[in-house]
Amino acid sequence: MQYQIGIVGAGIIAIYSAIVLAVLIWPLAKALKKFSWRWYLLGPIAFVLLAAPWAEEYWIASRFEEVCKDAGVHVYKQVEVDGFVDDLRRSDRYGIKTGLWNYSQKALADWDARGYRFQENMLMDGGVVHLERTTEGIEASILESPTARYHYKYAYQPSKYIHAERIDWKVEKRGTVVIDSESGEVIARDTWYRRGINFAEGSWRVFFGQVTTTCSGPKTERLPLAALKPIVK
């Protein structure tokens, strides 16, 4: 398990602990000095307050370590296809040029390296931009609905710009899936997790940009290519 409390964070926790003792626990102890049971009350309170910063980091780190065991690409079924629907970034259809697109040689080489004949990019109104490889280059057309059976999309996306699912305190889950649109079956998923930093570290790191840690599983072929194999002709 990897903890994320450095020297500065530990110093901040030490200052916080001193303040708790000096401002809260000690004055209460003096106010209750006539009562022999005062430490039965103040002891647990002091323990909880002093342990809280360390407990927070332990909780985040332990949960992150546990969920990261599930990170990575999980392929339940591989299929051969001519193309697929990309539903990661929907755009508006207006202003989209149809016909032959002016792709660079590098872009064409990258397309050919993937091996698909076509790709359909979802539009906000439910239509798609159908991009197809021809001898001249990449031909674009707009269709009112997808023709490809398999859709590549975010696993969790309750709204347009949200695709991170909070699963625990400062731990979130992200990922993509390949779905069979005919059966609704998820044939593959790529899952990764991200953790935030504890309060002590965050209280000073925020001035230098928030720091997060991500686990994405073993290095392997990613989606959609790991599940959707281009038909070789």
Distance between the termini: 48 Å
Q: Could you say how many structural domains there are in total?
A: 2
Give the proportion of residues in helices: 25-40%
Cα Rg = 27 Å
Per DSSP, what share of the residues sits in E-state strands of 2 or more residues?
25-35%
Please count the helical segments: 4
What multimeric state do the chains show? Answer: single chain
Number of beta strands: 13
Tell the overall outline. Answer: elongated
Structural class: alpha+beta
Uncertain runs: none
Order of helices and strands: HHEEEEHEEEEEEEHEE
Mean pLDDT: 94
Query: Main β-sheet, in a few words?
Result: 11 strands, mixed
Report on this model:
The chain has 233 residues and is α+β, with helices and mostly antiparallel strands. The protein folds into two domains: 7-69, no CATH class; 70-230, no CATH class. The chain is built from four helices and 13 strands. The strands form two sheets. Strands 1, 3, 4, 5, 6, 7, 8, 9, 10, 11 and 12 form an eleven-stranded mixed sheet that branches. A two-stranded parallel sheet has the order 2-13. Strand 9 (165-168) and strand 10 form a beta hairpin. Helix 1 runs antiparallel to helix 2 and helix 1 (7-31) crosses helix 4 (199-205). The longest helix is centred in the first third of the chain and has 30 residues, at 38-67. The protein is elongated and about 90 Å long. The protein starts with 6 loop residues before the first helix and ends with a strand. The mean pLDDT is 94.
